[in-house]
Design goal:
- By secondary structure, the chain is an alpha/beta fold.
- It has a single domain, classed as Phosphoglycerate mutase-like (Rossmann fold, 3-Layer(aba) Sandwich).
- About 40% of the residues lie in helices and about 15% in strands.
- It has seven helices and six strands; from the N terminus they run ααβαβαβαβαββα.
- It has a six-stranded mixed beta sheet, sandwiched between helices.
- Strand 5 and strand 6 form a beta hairpin.
- Helix 3 runs parallel beside helix 4, helix 3 packs across helix 7 and helix 5 packs across helix 6.
Length: about 200
């Protein structure tokens, strides 16, 4: 990735935290046709990751605040009439739980390519997962109706940073935030913090 491309992406990431930007991004979500990379909801930072998939006790899970945040995100998406197509989630519990709380037990499917980096110690597999995620972000959402939906990938902060070519701070991409991509390149158009989306709901 060129330095110029990184600067452009960095500007796009910073913009959503200006007060005027979130309403424009939420309007884009309501129009549909985007692929959204959603970070899992708020986690319990007293817990530590072991890197063992399938071991809930050995993972950093959602806190009570995170479970409430994920539930409210789903409620806000429905209240704002944001069209949702496919919902894919990392198999790490904090991501899968976020997807289930927001979209229902039957409203998502687990995809291994969205696995967190610290659960993917094999460098070749991690590289393949990042490439697959980037390719999925570039795909246009598929819709079986006249409504153009948004596809949602529920994942983690480090893989998204690897996709855009730089590390992301917690302030830039907080837990529960949504990074909006237009299919094609793909093009990151901005980030909506969870609280901004929840506050916009009627």
């Amino acid at each position: 990735m060129t330095m110029r491309r990184r600067i452009v992406l960095g500007a796009a990431l910073a913009a959503p935290f200006a007060a005027h930007a979130a309403p424009q991004l939420i309007a884009a979500l309501r129009e549909g046709g985007l692929t959204v990379y959603m970070r899992h909801a708020i986690t319990d930072r007293s817990q530590f990751d072991t890197g063992r998939l399938g071991d809930r006790a050995g993972q950093r899970n959602l806190s009570a605040a995170g479970r409430a945040q994920a539930t409210r995100l789903g409620q806000a998406i429905r209240a704002l009439s944001i069209p949702v197509g496919a919902v894919l989630a990392s198999p790490v519990f904090r991501a899968a739980d976020t997807a289930e709380l927001a979209f229902g037990a039957d409203g998502y499917r687990v995809e291994p390519f969205l696995t967190a980096d610290d659960y993917t110690p094999d460098a070749a597999l991690l590289s393949a997962n990042i490439a697959r995620t980037r390719a999925r972000l570039a795909e246009a959402p598929r819709s079986g109706s006249d409504i153009l939906a948004n596809d949602i990938l529920v994942g983690h902060i480090v893989p998204l940073g690897m996709i855009i070519g730089r590390s992301l701070s917690q302030a830039e991409f907080p837990e529960g935030a949504l990074a909006l991509f237009r299919p094609g390149a793909p093009t990151l158009i901005g980030i909506v913090p969870a609280e901004a989306l929840i506050a916009a709901a009627p």
